[in-house]
Amino acid sequence: MTEIPSSSYKLTPELDKPLKISEVALRNNDTCAERYTSEAYAQKEWRKVWMKTWNVAGMSYHVAEPGETITMNLGKESIICVRGDDNVIRAFYNSCPHRGTRITEEGESFVNQFSCPYHGWQFDLKGVNILAPNDEDFPQGSPCGKARLKEIQCRDLFGFIWINMDPDTNSLEDFLGNVITTDLASYNIPDTIRVLNMTADSPCNWKIITDNFNEAYHVQVLHPGLIPYIEANYKACQFDTLPEGHNRGWFPSHNPSILQEGEEVAEHLAEIMRQWSLDPDAFHGKENHSKIRHALQQSKRELGEEKGYKHYKNYASYQFTDYVIYNIFPNTVMSIGPDGVQLLRPRPHPSGDPQRCLFDHWWMVHPVKGVKTTPSPAGGPDLPVQDCEYEHVMYGEKSLGTTADEDLSIAKMQQEGLNSSGFQGFYLPHQERRVQHFHEVLNDYMNAE
Ligand code: FES
Ligand SMILES: [Fe+2]
User: Fold this and answer.
1) Which of 98, 170, 258, 358 has the most CB atoms lying inside 10 A of its own CB?
2) Whose CA is nearest to atom 3 of ligand 1?
3) Which residues, by Cβ under 5 Å, contact ligand 2, an ion?
4) What domains lie within the chain, and their CATH numbers?
5) Which residues form the Rieske domain (predicted)?
6) Is 226 in the pocket of ligand 1 (CB under 6 A)?
7) What residues of the chain score a pLDDT lower than 50?
8) How far apart are the first and last CA of the chain?
9) Does residue 114 have its Cβ closer than 6 Å to ligand 1?
10) What is the pLDDT of residue 24?
């Protein structure tokens, strides 16, 4: 297969799979258990990784108007993003310059100005103090017009607000690189609506979750329920380690895996086929299964726009059917399918405990005229296609969906096993090289000056 450098990567309509990128040469570094268990490692990681990388704070459409804010918590930190009266989106540490109190709570809100709940200092949307009670009583001069919230880097790109605490950071585009910026731009994510927003307080290090999404080796064992819809055999998939430190995995989908036994087309897939004017009975039998995906692509290309699937415009063939998973270093995992984006993201725990994390599950869908609900990736009833409420649960308290529950159940067991004196380091097959790449990139950040 021809490999190309990521700099010449582009998407064209006829592509049946993503272009293959020249992969990163791996060094076969050992992967120590401390990175999952040690408080000292986590503290260094905070400075070397979390304060140096771009992270998603929220959805752009939540800060569409001046005064709209998003407050995002990341580990011990909290960040406020707000659109100013000048239409610029800014981000600030959520810490009052009087005596440090947090000013806003996690989530979305609207403000005319920020008011600290402790002594009532107020700040305009540029973070500048505009009111302080008894402002004549400051020997060093009134804080009005002088004291300000500390600003950090902030960008609005691909429908997300991104933040970075490093004042000297690279641009977000350079950080993401050509492959990821090209792909994310092609999915029209700014048009989506977030219909699921859940966080589960989970009993594992955040990297156990990113590792899990960096390999599909476990799918055939842990998620047999996916086999009727998604390719689970590594030889038929494509994995890319990207030079900017991120990874990508491509899975031909809307097609039974070659691992599937039996002649039947699963009902869920049959229902989608009928929706696109295909007769599932015509594809009965194993020899016909491999034709389903192309038939769906063709049908969606022909009928999509008239059915209201406006986001299909300019899709490459594979994008009509397939799932592509993007692992953006360190923790932004996006699984993107034809009709929406799942964000599957672990965040370091606010307590600083390296053996816990917060696991976010967002589902953003493209609105289609006349379609009022969407199947929930978190299980349970279909979700209304509208901006949703936030839900925070403890691990085990409530289902996050069959697949995510299966992943989380094993995450706890892996964390426990990594605490064992018997852990001997990883023993990885080639198809798990995205895991190895992630850890080598992590080592590079940890060892950087
Ligand atoms: S700490 Fe914010 S006004 Fe005092
Ligand atoms: Fe999984």
Assistant:
1) 358
2) 119
3) 407
4) 6-52+172-447 (3.90.380.10), 55-164 (2.102.10.10)
5) 56-163
6) no
7) none
8) 38
9) no
10) 95
